[in-house]
Amino acid sequence: MNASSPQASRPTPQPHLFDLTRDELASWIEEQGEKPSHADRIFRAIYKHNRTTLMGVQNLPDRLAQKLEETFSLSPLETERVLDSSDGTRKILFRLYDGARVETVCIPSGKRMTLCISSQVGCALGCRFCYTASMGPGRNLAVSEYISQVVEGLRQAPCEYSVVNIVFMGMGEPLVNFKNLLSTLSILTDHFGLQLGARRITVSTAGLSPQILGLGEAFPVRLALSLHATTDEVRDDLMPINQRYNIANLFETLQQLQELPGQRDVAVLLEYTLIRDVNDSLEDAHRLAELAQSIRSKVNLIPYNEHPGAPYRSPDDEVLWPFMQILQQAGVRVTKRITRGDDILAACGQLAISSPRSTTTAP
Ligand code: SAH
């Protein structure tokens, strides 16, 4: 298998038990001549009781446990490094079976723990302002690599929590890794699995129209769209994917999305990274207000995080407030994203492999 191929998706030469949805596991078990309902028991054991061996799971025949353990790995992802920010954010660097690395960020806020999950090693979309893009196309993460980020992220969370939010806003584009994303969502929301509410899960995309609808049809998760520009001219340049699905096409798609049964009361989060002299004019604010009002939406303004991989600059503070006010006066719900984890390059778009300031080593 070629590890640099975007399609490569095995976490180890051996499949991992986290790769299988409960239905897939049930089918596999049936093929072994056993009762498919054992899948429920196994899911409960590995996701609710965090078991790393199946021998001795109640009511699970030893011969089946043994066969599963011979066929599937249950080993955790290797944690290479843990970086703690002064604001409580923790970034975990995982080393995958092929030596590639991905990052997961734990962001505590009161009783809430938000896990920011990566989708790919690198990213093929080539957004010009993003740090991850500088790593090149890379490969898709396997389902087990997705799930392991959640399991390990919760295990290594920096503090107590009672509510978990998952945001697919880490490295890569989740909608390019679509099939694995859907299986991952199935395991995350499975009541025998991790049992997370779909509304606590946000999938962020640079804007792949067909998959936006496919996702909405499959799961009532929240969608975030990385908009970042109000004209096709600027967006074509910042985000090459816009040449395929332009702004008008995306908003038509979002309108269709919002008509789906699972999405009727959900707002789309429009992410807008303010980049100095590129997309931060007051005309942009007016155009953004108009776009935001064409659907049910919330706007999240993200001041651009400067990094060595791109020539762009953060906006002036003097620009930010008038920009925000124009949106508010137009009746748009708008928040400014507080930058978290800036000192460990865990902030938006800063996730890539060169992590300069290590403060903690792997447990
Ligand atoms: N590919 C998906 C998931 C990445 S999410 C997507 O594009 O939505 C990461 C978010 O941070 C996206 O909105 C991305 O555009 C934004 N971002 C990337 N680089 C950034 C930077 N340097 N400063 C601020 N936001 C950035």
Q: What does it look like?
A:
Helix content is 31%, strand content 18%. The protein has 363 residues and is α/β, with parallel strands linked by helices. The protein folds into two domains: 17-71, DNA polymerase, domain 1; 78-344, Aldolase class I (TIM Barrel). The strands form two sheets. It has an eleven-stranded mixed beta sheet with strand order 12-11-10-9-8-7-4-3-2-1-13, with helices on one face. It has a two-stranded antiparallel sheet with strand order 5-6. Helix 9 packs parallel to helix 10. It starts with 21 loop residues before the first helix and ends with a strand. The site of S-adenosyl-L-homocysteine has 18 residues, from strand 8 and strand 10.
What descriptors fit this protein?
single chain, alpha/beta, DNA polymerase, domain 1, TIM Barrel, two-stranded antiparallel sheet, disordered C terminus
Bound molecules: S-adenosyl-L-homocysteine
Tell me, rounded to a whole number, the average pLDDT.
Answer: 91
Overall number of strands: 13
Low-confidence stretches: 1-11, 355-363
Name of the CATH architecture of the largest domain: Alpha-Beta Barrel
Task: Name the beta content range.
Answer: 15-25%
Principal-axes shape call = globular
Helix and strand pattern:
HHHEEEEEEHEHEHEHHEHEHEE
Terminal Cα span: 31 Å
Portion of residues within helices:
25-40%
Q: CATH H-level name of the largest domain... which superfamily? A: Aldolase class I
Number of domains: 2
Sheet with the most strands?
11 strands, mixed
User: Helical stretch count?
Assistant: 10
Radius of gyration: 21 Å
Strand order of the biggest β-sheet: 12-11-10-9-8-7-4-3-2-1-13
Output the structural class. alpha/beta
CATH topology of the largest domain: TIM Barrel
CATH class of the largest domain: Alpha Beta
